[in-house]
C-alpha cells in the first residue's frame, strides 16, 4: 500500500522532476503520478523523460482525485497555483509546496485555503546549480533535510503522512515554525547565494585584463564561490524578494562583520584579524567534525598515506 | 643534468614540503635538497617524512653552496629570512620566495639584495586548507599557475632556469609585474578568503539555535564557503596586512555591489536583481566553458544518462 494513491506534481523543474524520479525508483511512495507545468515544452520534455504516468492539460484536471498535490513552482507562482488548484482538489487531500521561503508564501496562500484540505509546506533543502526536468534525479533528497512547517489548520495524520513521504524519498525531516525556517535559511542559503552572485558580479565588472585573470586563476579560491552563482536567476529573485526581512537582517550582520575585518586590516590590528579568522574556523571545524564538510564526493587532495 | 645541483628550502610547510616531494618524485629538478625550518619540531617531522637529503642546523649552513634558495616562510617572515640568508649564499645563485603578496615583500627585501644573486619571486597559486609538512604532496602544483615577478636586478638566464624549475614541478608559469600580481590575487584569492572567514564568523556569532542549524543545514550553500575558511590564520593575517591596499580596494567594490543588490531587494526592483544575478552568472559560465569549473574531481550530482 503506497503512502499516496495518486500524487500530483505542479511544476516540473529540478525538484518536481526529482520527486517524480524518486517515485519511479522507490517503491511504496505513490501508485500513480500526474505532472503539469505551465510551460508546454517542459511537459513535452518531461514526457520524453518518462517522468510521470499522466500529463493532464491543465491544473484543474491534474489535481482531480489526487491525495497529495505538490506545488514545485517558483516561490512567486506558488500562491497563484494554489488559488487555481484548491477548488478542484478532493476533500481530505493534502496540499504542499516545496518553496524555500515560508512566511510570505503561507500569508499569500491563506485566503484560498479550505477547511477540508491540509496545507503543509515542506521545504527540501536540496538542489544543484542546474534546472529543468532533465536536471532531476531520484537521489537528490537522500540524506538532505526537509523542513516541514505545518499550518495550524493541517490535520496531524496528514502531517505524519507527508513526513513519511519525504522520508521515503530519502530525506531527513524536521518540524519548525515558519519564522524559524526563514531565519535559518537566510544564513545557510540566501546569504551565501547573495554573496556568490555578488562576488561574481564584482569580478565581471572589472577591466578585461582582470576578468581574464579571474578565469585563469579561479582555482585560488574564487572557484569555490561560483558553483552556486550558476543557480536560476528567477528562482533567486523570488527568494530574495519573498524573504526580504530575513535576508536584509542577516546581510546587515555580515556587512558589519566585513567592515570590522576591513577596519582591523586598515589599522594593522593583528590580534583582531586573527580573532575574526579563528572564529570563522570554529564553524568550519564543527562542520568537519560533524562529517558535513569533507564531503567524500568533494575531497581535497592530500598526500598519499 | 638537473636544473639545480643543490636546492635549499627555507620553511617546511605545505608549499615547502610539496616542492621537496616534487623533487623526490620527479627526476631532473635538483640533485641534492636541504631543508630548514625555524621550528625544530617541523624539522623533526620533515625528517621523519624523508622530505630532504639534509637538515642543516641554521639558515647560514642551509643556504651554503645552494644554487637556488626557496623561501617558503609566511609572508611576514620572508624579508627577515632573506636578510639572514643572503650573506651566506654563493655568488651566481638564485633567491626566490613563494609569498602570495609581491609589492610589499619586494620592497622589504630590497635593502638586503646583492648584485651577484638574482632575486626572482615566484608565487605558485596552489594550496589546500591544510598546513604543515605532512600536508605536502608532489602533485600540488600540477596544472596550477605559478606567477613569476622578476625584479629588475634578476639575470635573464636565472629567470629562465627558475621557470623551468616550476614547469618541472608541473606548474604553468606566467610573467607579470608585481603590481598586477597583487591586484589579480586580491580578486581571485584574498577577497574570497576574506568573505569566507567573515561568513563563518557571522554564523558563529549567531544564537546557539541558529549555529546548530548552520551545522545541520550547511549543505544548502553555506558549505561551499567554508572550505577555504579552514586555512591558516597566521598566513592569512600576513597576506591581508602585506597587501592591504589591493584587498581594501577590491573589498570596497564588493561592498558597493552588495549594497546595490541589497537596495534592489529592499526596493522590490526585480529587473535590477535579475541583472545582478545574470552578470554574476556570466563569469560562472565562462569558467565552465573554460573547463575551470566542473572540476572532474568535484562533480555536482547529475541524473544518469
TrEMBL record, chains A, B:
Record's keyword terms, sorted: Oxidoreductase
Pfam families: PDH_C, PDH_N
Annotated PANTHER family: PREPHENATE DEHYDROGENASE, PREPHENATE DEHYDROGENASE [NADP(+)]
The protein's name: Prephenate dehydrogenase/arogenate dehydrogenase family protein
Domain Prephenate/arogenate dehydrogenase: 5-295
Top-level taxon of origin: Bacteria
InterPro entries: 6-PGluconate_DH-like_C_sf, NAD(P)-bd_dom_sf, PDH_C, PDH_N, Preph/Arog_dehydrog, Prephen_DH
Region (Disordered) residue spans: 285-305
UniProt organism field: Candidatus Kirkpatrickella diaphorinae
